[in-house]
């Protein structure tokens, strides 16, 4: 590779566009007649996509198709639960749950004879009908992509593929045609708020830093995604690392910075490797480093690998970690825009925020502000998980109702005898939104009014088998474990809250425990130093707000309404509810259930290991 000019950037784009035209369903003018894009994100790799990818390439060669069919490994496709997944172009056929043994049939039937293999299509969970085309599957059809614009459409390890999708053109525009003030004004006009959780206006943060005096300033990317159930930022880095690099260079021009860091967890090796490749390739092309594209602007970017402490997602703790100190927060002010990394003016945004920047510069702030709601502009990426059919990454316009995400995109609750109970938003700093508020629009103010926060985008769906007290215990356990210990309210307060919650779940709750939880929550929120402690009690408070009766049942009646807390279960069969189907008997792993056809089941408590398999398989809630 050699360093390129802005004109050469456009020439590369035009050349690659011809090959990529197939992926837009257009007749390609490139070397191949067909592209097979197989997902190589962490989820699909865990499900075996590397072996499928190798088998695919070998079979294509074996059948003499390597000159006309291209096999491309992409980043995360987003439909993680059905991996390994693959999309074929120009048709847009979507294959799911691929295995090595399927590959000869796919190549022979589809690639050679033009007959797609129906049995490997996505099957709608409601209608049970096969849906062959990716764009017709509700999970994809109802999304609007900005931050995930390039997902499953390019080889994440090829800079040319990114350039072919218009990559680095916004950076070229910002460096050559825009002043720092112009860039900040455009981002402010877009209304983009930070996607890391706090939702602070991005353009305003940049303006503060731009106006801060100092010759040395820093641009940081927070890729320390640690919320349970969240994988948005990791997936963007795996699928589209150049978008983050490009966004950071644009910000560097805006504030006059020449040094930047991406703070990423070492436990995300695929994301780190692809980001490092992107940085290396960008430097080789002259898109990073000295005199970028001959514009006279310099910017160096490095990766700092964190050890995986949740508190290091807090901006001041993250900066201390990069400085080589223990990752602990410090009081603010001064804010990082004035005194951040090594006490220099610094801006910090998360991965998703950076991925939005190139398109805002390219298409304009007004374009971005035209999407979403008055209070919340643009789109938001959610990691949809839990008791929902279609688990994966979802990007929707701000204001989209939760119901649309859970039922239309997510496909609803998997088990028909179960009902939607709540959705947990914002991770350990967030809260639960119950069934009667499922039409709440996903925007900052409405979500907060409902008792949760947008957070970084973790969205966990729960059905009525979920015990809300136990759920609060889980998040408090996480918060207590991740507390850095610097301030007493967080260190000791969350520990005491966890002890009370564990006691309640164990059937040892006492009158007054609920009130003590409320008092501790208020104190911890008010007195903690950083966001971890200030928001740590939120899961407890939101579950108390909507599910207080469950807490009272645990404490006063010694029962768990969701039949989840083992200590409160009797493992007996309700003869009035039992339909004599025998599902408990058939699924018991230790033969602890006596059952005969047309008779009520009975559980032998001497053999029972209290694994709850019988409860989970009983469709009539007959075991308590």
Tags for this entry?
single chain, 624 residues, alpha/beta, five-stranded mixed β-sheet, four-stranded mixed β-sheet, 13% strand
Could you characterize what this model shows?
The chain is of the alpha/beta class and about 625 residues long. Helix content is about 40%, strand content about 15%. It is built from 24 helices and 17 strands. Strands 12-11-15-13-14 form a 5-stranded mixed β-sheet. Strands 2-1-3-4 form a 4-stranded mixed β-sheet, with helices on one face. The longest helix is centred in the last third of the chain and has 20 residues, at about 540-555. It starts with 5 loop residues before the first helix and ends in a 7-residue tail after the last helix.
* Helix-residue proportion: 25-40%
Q: What profile does the largest beta sheet have?
A: 5 strands, mixed
Give the tally of β-strands: 17
Quote the average pLDDT.
Answer: 95
Radius of gyration from CA coordinates: 26 Å
Spans of at least 5 consecutive residues whose pLDDT stays below 50 are none
Main sheet: strand order: 12-11-15-13-14
| Spatial separation of the terminal alpha carbons | 67 Å
The shape, in one word, is globular
Main structural class: alpha/beta
In percent terms, what proportion of residues is strand?
Answer: 5-15%
What is the topology?
Elements: H1 6-20, E1 34-39, H2 42-46, H3 49-62, E2 69-74, E3 86-89, E4 93-95, H4 103-112, E5 122-123, E6 130-131, H5 138-141, H6 159-164, H7 169-177, H8 180-190, H9 202-211, E7 218-223, H10 232-239, H11 241-255, E8 259-265, H12 269-284, E9 300-306, H13 315-322, E10 346-350, H14 351-363, H15 365-369, E11 379-386, E12 392-397, H16 402-409, E13 420-425, E14 431-434, H17 444-449, E15 458-463, H18 468-482, H19 488-505, H20 513-527, H21 531-535, H22 538-557, H23 583-587, E16 593-594, E17 602-603, H24 613-617
Parallel strand pairs: 1-2, 7-8, 7-10, 8-9, 11-15
Antiparallel strand pairs: 1-3, 3-4, 5-6, 11-12, 13-14, 13-15, 16-17
């Amino acid at each position: 590779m050699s360093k390129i000019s802005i004109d050469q950037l456009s020439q590369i784009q035009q050349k690659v566009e011809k090959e990529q035209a197939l992926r837009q369903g257009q007749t390609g003018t490139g070397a191949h007649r067909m592209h097979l894009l197989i997902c190589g994100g962490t989820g699909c790799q865990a499900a075996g996509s590397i072996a499928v990818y190798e088998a695919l390439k070998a079979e294509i060669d074996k059948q003499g198709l390597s000159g006309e069919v291209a096999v491309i490994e992409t980043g995360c496709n987003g439909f993680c639960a059905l991996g390994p997944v693959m999309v074929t172009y120009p048709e847009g056929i979507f294959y799911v749950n691929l295995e090595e043994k399927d590959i000869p049939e796919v190549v022979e039937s589809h690639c050679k004879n033009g007959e797609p293999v129906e049995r490997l299509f996505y099957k709608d969970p409601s209608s049970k009908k096969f849906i062959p085309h990716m764009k017709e599957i509700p999970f994809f059809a109802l999304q609007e992509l900005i931050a995930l614009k390039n997902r499953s459409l390019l080889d994440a390890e090829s800079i040319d593929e990114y350039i072919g999708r218009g990559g680095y053109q916004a950076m070229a525009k910002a460096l050559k045609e825009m002043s720092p003030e112009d860039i900040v004004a455009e981002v402010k006009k877009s209304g983009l708020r930070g996607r890391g959780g706090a939702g602070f206006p991005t353009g305003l943060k940049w303006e503060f830093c731009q106006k801060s005096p100092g010759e040395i300033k820093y641009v940081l990317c927070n890729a320390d995604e640690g919320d349970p159930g969240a994988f948005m930022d990791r997936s963007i880095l795996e699928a589209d690392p150049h978008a983050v690099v490009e966004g950071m260079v644009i910000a560097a021009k805006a504030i006059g910075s020449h040094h930047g860091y991406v703070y990423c967890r070492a436990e995300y090796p695929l994301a780190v490797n692809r980001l490092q490749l992107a940085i290396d390739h960008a430097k080789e092309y002259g898109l990073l480093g000295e005199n970028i594209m001959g514009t006279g602007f310099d910017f160096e970017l490095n990766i700092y690998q964190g050890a995986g402490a949740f508190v290091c997602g807090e901006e001041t703790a993250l900066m201390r970690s990069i400085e080589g100190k223990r990752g602990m927060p410090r009081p603010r002010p001064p804010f990082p825009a004035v005194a951040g990394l090594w006490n220099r003016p610094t801006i910090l945004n998360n991965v998703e925020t950076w991925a939005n920047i190139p398109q805002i510069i390219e298409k304009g702030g007004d374009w971005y502000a035209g999407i979403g709601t008055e209070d919340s502009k643009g789109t938001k990426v959610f990691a949809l998980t839990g008791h929902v059919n279609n688990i994966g990454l979802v990007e929707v316009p701000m204001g989209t109702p939760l119901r649309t995400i859970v039922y239309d995109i997510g496909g609803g609750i998997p088990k028909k005898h179960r009902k939607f109970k709540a959705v947990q938003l914002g991770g350990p700093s967030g809260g639960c939104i119950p069934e009667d508020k499922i039409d709440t629009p996903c925007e900052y103010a409405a979500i907060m009014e409902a008792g949760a926060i947008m957070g970084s985008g973790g969205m966990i769906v729960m059905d009525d088998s979920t015990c809300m007290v136990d759920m609060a215990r889980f998040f408090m356990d996480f918060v207590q474990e991740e507390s850095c210990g610097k301030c007493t309210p967080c260190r000791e307060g969350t520990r005491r809250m966890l002890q009370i919650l564990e006691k309640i779940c164990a059937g040892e709750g006492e009158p007054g425990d609920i009130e003590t939880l409320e008092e501790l929550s208020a104190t911890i929120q008010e007195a903690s130093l950083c966001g971890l402690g200030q928001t740590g009690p939120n899961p407890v408070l939101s579950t108390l707000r909507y599910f207080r009766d469950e807490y009272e049942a645990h404490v006063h009646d010694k029962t768990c309404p969701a039949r989840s807390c083992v200590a409160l279960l009797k493992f007996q069969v309700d003869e009035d509810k039992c339909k004599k189907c025998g599902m408990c008997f058939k699924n018991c792993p230790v033969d602890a259930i006596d059952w005969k056809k047309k008779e009520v089941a009975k559980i032998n408590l001497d053999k029972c290991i209290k694994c709850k398999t019988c409860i989970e398989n009983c469709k009539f809630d007959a075991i308590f």
